[in-house]
């Protein structure tokens, strides 16, 4: 047997270099990288602004007056048709109050554990005064355990009225925040009126 036929240099099989094209060419397509001009946060903010503009369809424009149009959805269960429970949707038009430098907005927030109130200038987006039961001094003064009561709400109304009068604010637009005018909300408003604030 000839030893040259067993050499790897003279293999009968084609090499890998023989499969390569004679004139290699670059692919005709190209990738185009485009950067978004806005971020996801800006897109989300713009979408929320569009939604607000669609819902607010009535505006009176006077100082501290009512602007209507925000739609709130309330779902209640009713028993009808052979005692079966059906979900009924009710759409309500809730009125928002807009504060101005001459007549800022008195905004109330209540929960099971806390009660807070702010005096807000919506034109300049400034909070002029605020009182809350979450503040350490106020919480230690009242010393309640089962949530703010009507007496606590009266005291909060008195404190916010004095704070507003010290800063020269005598007229406010009351924003109850969708809560019924009852209980703590009513007690806070009455106490603020009694101590000099005009609604």
UniProtKB/TrEMBL annotation:
<dbReference type="GO" id="GO:0005737">
    <property type="term" value="C:cytoplasm"/>
</dbReference>
<dbReference type="GO" id="GO:1990904">
    <property type="term" value="C:ribonucleoprotein complex"/>
</dbReference>
<comment type="similarity">
    <text>Belongs to the universal ribosomal protein uL18 family.</text>
</comment>
<protein>
    <recommendedName>
        <fullName>Large ribosomal subunit protein uL18c</fullName>
    </recommendedName>
</protein>
<dbReference type="InterPro" id="IPR005484">
    <property type="entry name" value="Ribosomal_uL18_bac/plant/anim"/>
</dbReference>
<keyword id="KW-0699">rRNA-binding</keyword>
<keyword id="KW-0687">Ribonucleoprotein</keyword>
<keyword id="KW-0694">RNA-binding</keyword>
<keyword id="KW-0472">Membrane</keyword>
<dbReference type="GO" id="GO:0005840">
    <property type="term" value="C:ribosome"/>
</dbReference>
<dbReference type="GO" id="GO:0006412">
    <property type="term" value="P:translation"/>
</dbReference>
<feature type="transmembrane region" description="Helical">
    <location>
        <begin position="57"/>
        <end position="77"/>
    </location>
</feature>
<dbReference type="GO" id="GO:0003735">
    <property type="term" value="F:structural constituent of ribosome"/>
</dbReference>
<dbReference type="InterPro" id="IPR004389">
    <property type="entry name" value="Ribosomal_uL18_bac-type"/>
</dbReference>
<keyword id="KW-0812">Transmembrane</keyword>
<keyword id="KW-0689">Ribosomal protein</keyword>
<dbReference type="InterPro" id="IPR057268">
    <property type="entry name" value="Ribosomal_L18"/>
</dbReference>
<dbReference type="Pfam" id="PF00861">
    <property type="entry name" value="Ribosomal_L18p"/>
</dbReference>
<keyword id="KW-1133">Transmembrane helix</keyword>
<dbReference type="GO" id="GO:0008097">
    <property type="term" value="F:5S rRNA binding"/>
</dbReference>
């Amino acid at each position: 047997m000839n030893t040259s036929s067993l050499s790897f240099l003279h293999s009968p099989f084609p090499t890998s270099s023989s499969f390569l094209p004679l004139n290699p060419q670059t692919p005709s397509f190209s990738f185009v990288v485009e950067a978004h001009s806005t971020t996801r946060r800006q897109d989300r903010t713009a979408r929320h602004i569009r939604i607000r503009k669609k819902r607010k369809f009535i505006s009176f424009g006077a100082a501290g007056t009512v602007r209507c149009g925000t739609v709130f959805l309330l779902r209640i269960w009713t028993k009808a048709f052979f005692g079966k429970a059906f979900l009924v949707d009710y759409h309500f038009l809730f009125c928002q109050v807009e504060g101005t430098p001459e007549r800022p907005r008195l905004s109330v927030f209540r929960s099971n554990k806390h009660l807070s109130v702010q005096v807000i200038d919506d034109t300049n987006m400034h909070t002029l005064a605020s009182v809350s039961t979450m503040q350490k001094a106020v919480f230690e003064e009242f010393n309640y355990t089962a949530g703010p009561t009507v007496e606590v709400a009266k005291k909060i109304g008195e404190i916010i009225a004095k704070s507003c009068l010290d800063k020269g604010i005598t007229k406010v637009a009351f924003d109850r925040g969708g809560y019924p005018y009852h209980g703590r909300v009513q007690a806070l408003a009455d106490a603020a009126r009694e101590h000099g604030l005009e609604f």
